[in-house]
Amino acid sequence: MDIVLNADIILDLCLEAQPGHAVAGQAVKKHLARRERVWAYVGDSRWLLDTLAACVSGPDLATRRRTAATLLAEQTQACQWLAALSAEGPVFAAENPELERLLRACSRLPETARLLTRDPELLAHHPKAMHPEQYLALPDAQPTVPFIDLSVQQDHLRPILEHNLHTVLHHGGYIMGPEVKKLERSLAEYAGMGHCISCASGTDALQLALMALAIGPGDAVFVPAFTFMASAEVVSLLGAEPRFVDIDPLTFNMDPRCLESAILECLQEGKVKPRCVMPVDLFGLPADYPALRALADRFGLTILADSAQGFGATMNGVMACQLAHITATSFFPSKPLGCYGDGGAIFTSDANLAETMASLRVHGKGADKYDNVRIGINSRLDTIQAAVLQAKLTRFPQELTLRRQVAAQYSARLAPHARTPYTPSGLESTWAQYGIVLKQRDQVEKQLRARRIPTAVYYPKALPFQTAYAHLGDPAGRFPVAEEVSRQILHLPMHADLVPEEIERISVEVIQAIQTCQQG
């Protein structure tokens, strides 16, 4: 649960060395040790500074205020600041306006949040108020480990996030506002690509790219057999035929040898024309672009990379999205670079393709929105989502480094007990997910659930065996690697802000679960 520090508690923290003030510090330290959020209310700042200045020593008021400011900065360093919003303004009719402002601010927090205070009136009349001694009496519990923790990331970015969001609210350009173009320039520069076209989702990014390539009935697009439904779905939506390709047994990405066989089989059948290869940077690891590009060049195919999980990945120091003709990515909230809703983007260095995709995302517009030169769709990235992504991009390189460190710690602990991810030399994954391969996957997953360790399975069924593709008639055993991996892969909590203690706890529980299943 979150706790909000009433002004009296913050004062206690600053005067902790004096008699009667220590219990507040003990409660706050206990809460922080549980990796829970602590808030301080912005509206209390002036009162705190004036009151604390009267409590500290110094030759004059200016010196005492500087001392008070330093103490406050130190003691609230671990706090998130609960900003005052317009709802906290009109409180003049309240019996206690200052208290009313605080309570209105607290109402924005989760229902479980509590207000830490020693104020007798608050404790007597407000159900969310809690004395520090009450908090210390709560039973100790092991902190919950979330599968993906966006709240910690938000804590790091709160000032710039709130600034960006309020800027959009004030200028009101909710559709294609200035933040959208700014983000597209930032993303293109980061990726080293000539053009970035933002859109409403990662799925739309794939569809827009295929539409720009004029993919349709009579065309074949080669898709990995082990990936999310969206990769093949957009092909089918346009009337083309997805041709599934088995995956490499080490990387789980599209196997170039299987791709060559699939292309030759397609040509021999003569029913549909091979047009496009759609490798997926699965779990953030770049596909084997040199081998895939050689095949694409040989057969005259376009490479459209589905890098929904892989934006920011590199191959020999080069951004992976530079290695395909077109790259599509997703900004779904759980992605390494995610917004607070749906969003996506397309990257290319082909100016003509970029112009076509920019037109397609807004109903095929030409010179203006009422000049429609082609049939398109409505797939604009919301300005608010662009504002969120612009804030997150400031921390993104650091987060990729942190994800790689988390993955390295996992592998060091788990490699003796399970098959851990393989990363070829020269490749840097974004580590969108961290998966291990286990023959007793389902039993281990059940054990971890009982141990309160969240897990996920990406993906429990190979794409050719989804009900939607039953009509293709692919028999069991046609994609042996994809089928085996879908039965054995298990994903563990992964995000940039996992700390070593959490990684160790998860690893210990995983090892014990594996050993229990092996013995049973």
What does this structure look like?
By secondary structure, this protein is an alpha/beta fold. It contains 19 helices and 17 strands. A 7-stranded mixed beta sheet has the order 6-14-13-10-9-7-8, with helices on both faces. The chain has a 5-stranded parallel beta sheet with strand order 3-2-1-4-5. A 3-stranded antiparallel beta sheet has the order 12-11-15, with no helix packed on it. It starts with a strand and ends with a helix. The mean pLDDT is 94.
**Biggest sheet: strand arrangement:** 6-14-13-10-9-7-8
The portion of residues forming beta strands comes to 5-15%
What does the overall shape look like? globular
Uncertain runs are: none
The major sheet is characterized as:
7 strands, mixed
The proportion of residues forming helix, as a percent range, comes to 40-55%
- Supply Rg: 27 Å
Q: What is the mean pLDDT?
A: 94
Q: How would you classify the helix and strand content by structural class?
A: alpha/beta
The beta-strand count equals: 17
Distance between the termini: 37 Å
Number of helices: 19
Keywords:
five-stranded parallel sheet, seven-stranded mixed sheet, alpha/beta, 19 helices
